[in-house]
Amino acid sequence: MAKVIIALFVFATLGWSPVAAQHKIIIGLDWQQIDEDYNHGLIFDGAELTLGYGYTKYFSESKLDLESKLKFGFSESHEVLGFNISFQPIKVFYGLEAKYNDEFVVYYGLAFKSDYILALYPDLQMGHDFWISSFQLAPAINAGYSFDKDKLNFRLSLAALGLYSRPSVKKDEYNYSLALSDILSDMHSNMKFGTIGLATDLSFGVEYVFDKLQPDYSISYDFRYLLYFEEPKLRYLYHGMSFNYYMGDK
After folding, report:
1. In terms of pLDDT, which residue wins out, 248 or 78?
2. Residues 6+ apart with CB under 8 A from 66
3. Mean model confidence pLDDT for the chain
């Protein structure tokens, strides 16, 4: 997977002169739901604060997107509390342009993403951590429609290949630790490679950019639905709104 991201970056940056580049600061609020197999049928819902950074480089006939996000918050089910941290170190999208007219353009390409979701349930599963970690490659589409000096952007991706880490099928009731080093080790253990038969991860987003403002601002909505099918199973859903501040070229 590391070779994939390097290849995408090299392919995107060699041989093309950039037309424009933008930086983006992301602040958002999400609502997430976790159905963890180990939680005895309890489904946890709660809010997360999102902080992120993005970088977009436009070429004459292509586009490169880089994005990193950190989310943290809480969840609850039947007065039982959970705590959640999600970290997306990098998401890379590279797409080739298909311009249908002056207002509507679509970029068809691939996205690579590394992603970590960690949950703790101290009142239910004292001392245990629960997670899903992944390194994914996905066909992806980015589209944009311009009107009245503003823009409406759309994003869609579905993971096709991935490496996934989940807790063991049998939980160790006697030997466990929440030390940071042990959590980091856990989140890279039990790695399995698979396609959509192992896990389905669908992401969709829409963004309204107030392009007439200097600098640009935008409001975006994001949706994600992740299913892990092998034991222990997991269903994870989030949707939320974010405010984005752009800096750089138009």
Report:
1. 78
2. 54, 55, 56, 90, 91, 92
3. 89
CA distances, 105 to each of 83, 146, 248 (Å): 40, 9, 21
Q: Which two tokens stand for residue 134?
A: 């992944």
**Measured at the alpha carbon of residue 57, what is the angle toward residues 60 and 18, in degrees to the nearest 5?**
45
* DSSP letters spanning 93-142: EEEEEEE-SSSEEEEEEEEEEEEEEEEE-TTTSTT-EEEEEEEEEEEEEE
Residue 78 per-residue DSSP state: T
CA angle 94, 97, 99 (to 5 degrees): 155
pLDDT in tens, 148-200: 778 899 999 999 999 999 998 776 666 667 888 888 888 999 999 999 999 99
**Residue % of the chain over a pLDDT of 70:** 88
Burial tier of 195 (Cβ tally within 10 Å: 0-12, 13-18, 19+): exposed
pTM: 0.87
Residue 232: is the preceding peptide bond cis (ω within 30°)? yes
